[in-house]
């Protein structure tokens, strides 16, 4: 598909309206029917940093286990049991366990004790107070739904935000942390049929009272919220964990129960951004089409006409000089397919970029079609890992084809390095960053068994598939260049102005970044603010606009370089297209300054490390898009020339 056709198709989707980009989801799990009095399981998850109405910044990136000893949460009889989780859920830090809280369908409970008194020593109090000041949230799940707080966005739209506050901060000057030790649980249920009920929503309103106490008869008396729990960092503090349960009938069906949680923040901003990006793409593609179609057709026709006439000297001017008056790209036909420096590295990066490209595209498509239901925790990450694994065959094949085209001779090294170099670097960085998480005793640290599972998937599935793809690539017929390569390299005039490497990278990189920067904001927010990202319709369009923009501007820049008689287009195409990663990293740093305020240097190291890692992968992905598009373009235009 031509750039113009693809860009017009994307614009047509924009004009079609919100329904075109509103992704949907399949329920993902079969509904559980309860009868009146049946026990409804409540499981607990990690405690995560978040923001509050008073403080909109995130101050930590570390999650903690719900049963961390410092929190003194009541454990179920016999100890908490770990629930089975998906690979993606574990990688994102979920640690789901059983709890002692008892909920029975349709049975309201008022002021019930979770367990006996709990004593906070000064050391534990200091730890918990620090987490309260950092706006940590408690995360529960009831029948697969997260316990949430009711929130109102800037447009006064009501939605459910997963998690509820560990505590509150009283006062503006002194900022006294207050621990929530009472939970009002509102469970919304829908009657599916006679005597069958389903959970369709969960809200928790936490409160605090130091006056709560256990009575001699085993009952509990909830105290006045006017006297909150303030944990002393000098003396021991005793508290009682209590909760109340209220069952609320709801017309919401099971199939749509997630709609309250999947909130699109201000869709008008998305539409404005997409419209601007689409207009930029149309203008850009129009410019590229005008230059490349009109100019190139004219140049090629003129060159071929003169070549057919056999005019070595046309009016006292040589053929090369005649053509050079219009453009110099034809003068380098004998050098344009000369192998670049380090063809091994370039082919490996392009192969891994193709693997990332396929993984990203299919993941977004699956999410857009509703196959990645939010009820299946970690399904998005699991699918990404598995798709990257299986697309190892694509990475190996593309790497082999590129390396073979550049007349590489060390084919064994190419086969070995393609599945090892980039994934190995990513895994090494991930492992080092995980050490920081482990050192902070965070529940977000990936367990050793999960690391072992990742390595097993890598070496037992991805590497063999990559080797098989490389074998097919080297076995396939070689793509011969359309023109012969001269034995003596042509001298390259010095580059000036925007054609120098750094200016060209900065100019080209900003346009693909402009197509995705808004969605990048919401993706970063969902990661560090522990939100559910669900705007895959917008993300799909942004991804398409980014592909078209990266290809178009890279082709344009390489065309200008060829006209300046610079035939080293291979690495130039990769670096200029991948330069949008520079802006992605700078944007992540700006987000740090504007939305994050870490209270420990380890949080900063973790954020910086993951931002650099994601930016590096983005560089490989977008660099591959620009390289492949430019490769096809160069092959096409020089294949149109008639050269003896």
Automatic annotation (TrEMBL):
It comes from Aureobasidium melanogenum (strain CBS 110374) (Aureobasidium pullulans var. melanogenum). GO terms for biological process: protein localization to membrane; vacuolar transport. The lineage of its organism: Eukaryota, Fungi, Dikarya, Ascomycota, Pezizomycotina. The keyword Protein transport does not apply. It is found in: Membrane. Coiled coil: none annotated. The chain crosses the membrane at residues 271-293, 345-371, 383-403, 415-439, 451-474, 505-529, 535-562, 574-593, 605-634. The keyword Transmembrane applies. Belongs to the nonaspanin (TM9SF) (TC 9.A.2) family. Residues 1-23 form the signal peptide. GO terms for cellular component: endosome; fungal-type vacuole membrane. InterPro entries: EMP70. This is Transmembrane 9 superfamily member. It is a multi-pass membrane protein. Pfam families: EMP70 (PF02990). Its main location: membrane. Keywords: Membrane, Signal, Transmembrane, Transmembrane helix.
